[in-house]
Amino acid sequence: MDLYTLSVRQASDLLQTGEITSVALTSAILERIHAVEPTVRAHITVSEDLALQQAEAADVRRRAGEQVTPLTGIPYAVKDCLSTKGVRTTCASKILEDYVPRYNAAVIDRLADAGAVLVGKHNMDEFGMGSSCENSAFFATHNPWDVTRVPGGSSGGSAAAVAAEMTPFALGEDTGGSIRMPAGFCGVTGVKPTYGRVSRYGLIALVSSFDTIGPLTRDVADAALVMQTIAGHDPRDSTSLRAPVPDYDQTFTRDLKGVTVGVPVEYFAEGIDPAVEAPVREALAVLRDLGAEVREVSLPHTHYAIPVYYLILFAEASSNLARFDGVRFGLSSDGADVLERYLHTRHAGFGDEVKRRIMLGTFALSAGYYDAYYLRAQKVRALLRQDFDRAFAEVDALVAPVCPTPAFKLGEKVADPLTMYLSDVHVVAINPAGVPSLALPCGFTGDVPPLPVGMQLIGRPLDEATLFRIGHAYQQATTWHLARPSVMR
Amino acid sequence: MKPLLEYEPVIGMEIHAELRTRSKMFCGCAVTDTTVAEPNTTICPVCTGLPGAMPAVNREAVEQAIMVGLALNCHINEFTSFARKNYFYPDLPKGYQISQYDFPIATEGWVDVADENGAAHHIRVRRAHMEEDTAKLFHVYEPREVDYTLIDFNRCGVPLLEIVSEPDMHSVEAAHAYATKIREILRYLGVNSGDMEKGVLRFEANVSVRPVGRERLGTRTEIKNLNSFRALTLATAYEIERQIAVIEAGGEVVQETLGWDALRNVTFSQRSKEHAHDYRYFPEPDLPPLSIDRPWIDEVAAVLPELPDAKYARFVADYGLTPYDARVLATDRAVADYFESAVKAYSGAPSSVAKWLSGELFYLMNREGVAIEAVRVPPEALAQLIGLVDAGTLNQNSAKTVLGEMFATGGSPEAIVEAKGLAQISDNDQLTAIVAHVVADNADQVAAYLAGKDSVFQWLMGQVMRATRGRAAPDVARQLLQDALEAICDEHKGHFDSEAKAK
């Protein structure tokens, strides 16, 4: 048995019965990374020594009869925007190329407490700015299903690593689809939790109002398990919500009787690739067979989502990225005076897409433009939220494609940022609304090799449980989530 | 040259006050005396702006801000929120300062002040808002080497309250009185030490002038970084004169930000309007709006200490103090508390306590540079001392000596009187004998007195005091000396008369 193929729950059971050790499991994962990394290029950093130490500690904890959790001894890796104490954290940017944090993000602390084993840091679009993982300052990640294609972004490294079985689970970060889009492109399960459900403390911010941290896994059951550990209020993140986290396993059901799902007509409108639409429609049929009622709903302000999302993104990102000034950490370039040092540092440290967004955001916030851009965007954002509120008065969840197309070719959209921005049209509206969304595989295209197609389930604020219930029931009735990219075997 | 027109200055002030909380505005780091603490010892990921660190509002700072708002008669806004003020500078680690913009915690207040000439001024407070202090920069200039700058982040993130007045001051004196009053109130509330030299209180003044009678305001300039009352007074006075001179010369005042050169006593241009910062304010997305409900405000109001003006009025009404004494004792909360504790322990008139406290004890405190909090004489002991004077046990002079001893050693008045044998001598027989001695030993001076040189009487009194080491009850001694001298005079006269008769 190849240990790296195990899901979180499978591995957890074997650790529990003593059939395997965390050191063996972690070693298998590290070997798998070494074997596959040259092809997929998912990792910026592999913290091998630290991982083996943590694995050893997990085994000791278990042998000593100390309290263990389902994640004790389970290896994982995270998108490189999460602060990890003693492990380089780059955000895939030159400006943080050598930055080693002095503290852990809240989610890393929670996973460490649970006994999980950190093996490395995943590639991403620089500071989360991109939809293909090509905006990494270091290298592009390749889609394990077809290495000539992108894995999606910005959590591309994390999705590719889960798909290529380089980790049982990963933590990604989703500002406007950055977990769901690569999950869709790579055929894995990804959760964008409700805004405020998971502490952002220690997450290097892209857009403070939208950023969420969530798991990428082989299936919904694993995603729920990881969420069970990382969700909940944290006083260090003032935007984190004081709401109890239900026991997700208790909400799983075989069928979906009594559940109503909505199909937002706007998400199936023009521009959607028939190769994507067909599997999502088939998934709706499966949900209906499981007992769910399916009906159409409307989210009439959807077409404002992209401008609202990007305006707020540019503005907040321009401010969030101001701290990268070369004074206290990261890249620091010389200059004749303070201003020149700033200019040289930021010129050398940031990639083109980052600079583009900082400039747009600075402009959008400047005197005389604030009202027309940022303030207006926040007002329209309220309309987007209202759309969802109205829909959720009628239905328990919405079903939509993750992306209008399957994974595109590496280099295909690099020259055209606007087309790249539009590739996240179906995922970005969710973030301004703050609602949770679960992406999961629902089929393949007819391409050679075939490419995964993803759907997303969108839920009421804080109601991840319903999404897990629907997703889990769907995965009990289907096998799409069990498929693995054969090229890697 | 005397100006052609008469001008009226218009001054508004911004006062930055550090709040004396235990921890910083948005993190758990301790607030330290940054003039003393080892640099960069009370810092963390939040206040040094490390990537991913997030702010959390310090409840104590909010409560102190509410206290100040209430003390300045402000409206406390139940909806208040933070905003980012974006600009680059090495003392600002995040590249933005978390401040308040659209929704400050307190608005529309006022204070009444009297300036040094006794003129009253009603000054409106536009707003008070919470923000975080910046780090401290130390520029190191090394000849022939590369200059560099050191940064101390201990101060970074310390809570600041910015109090913004309306342009309601029309003289340097009014501005000074307003700043003094704000400092007094902050100290009273215990939210700021008022130590200007430690930089916990900083002033900025907006100054413009206009011909008397004109409604429209003149162009204003803003003088930054006034870190003492002296700088505030000199800089505003200088700026008023400068603007008048510019206008009189047919020129126009330019809107700009000025610095104050405390060595040459001039203002200098720092930034023109064209180069003014665009701070790109927007709501701080890492902090949800803060709602301050009525019960919370009431809770803070309930523990709000009595403020100087109310205390002053009460001291006059309840203790019968003169307005002057009441003002002197009510200005500082610790002094006022000391006074009231002493009054409570004293059975006589509160004005006696006021006299001893503001006279003799203040004299000792000034001479030794000791603040009231550090004085070793408990208020009850001062009351006892005054009681000894009232009972005739001590005369004024001995009492001063005893107080000096109490001040130096912390001893009780009775013990010092006992140990030093300072109890007053008011016994007639004892003093009569001493007076007789003095008169007998100083025949020449007595003769001079008898010859009409009245001032010698004081000298003779001095001799009596010296003989008793100052313990003679002065009234008794004076009477006895007078009696003794009159007796000699009579005798003398009798002798003279008989001599004349003999001739």
Characterize the structure shown.
The complex is a heterodimer of chains A (489) and B (503). Chain A has 489 residues and is an alpha/beta fold. Chain A is 39% helix and 13% strand. Chain A has helices at residues 8-17, 22-40, 48-63, 106-114, 156-163, 180-186, 220-230, 274-289, 305-320, 338-349, 352-365, 371-394, 417-422, 425-428, 430-433, 464-477; strands at 43-46, 75-79, 117-122, 169-174, 189-192, 212-217, 260-264, 293-297, 397-401, 437-444, 452-459. Chain A has an eleven-stranded mixed β-sheet, sandwiched between helices. In chain A, helix 9 (305-320) packs across helix 12 (371-394). The longest helix of chain A is centred in the C-terminal third of the chain and has 24 residues, at 371-394. The mean pLDDT of chain A is 95. In chain B, helix 7 (333-344) packs across helix 9 (379-390) and helix 9 (379-390) packs antiparallel against helix 10 (396-409). Chain B is elongated and about 100 Å long. The A-B interface holds A 81-83, 89, 91, 96, 99, 101-103, 105, 200-205, 207-209, 235-239, 315-316, 318-319, 321-325, 327-329, 338-339, 342, 362, 365-367, 370, 374 and B 45, 48-57, 84, 86, 88-90, 93-96, 151, 278, 280-282, 285-288.
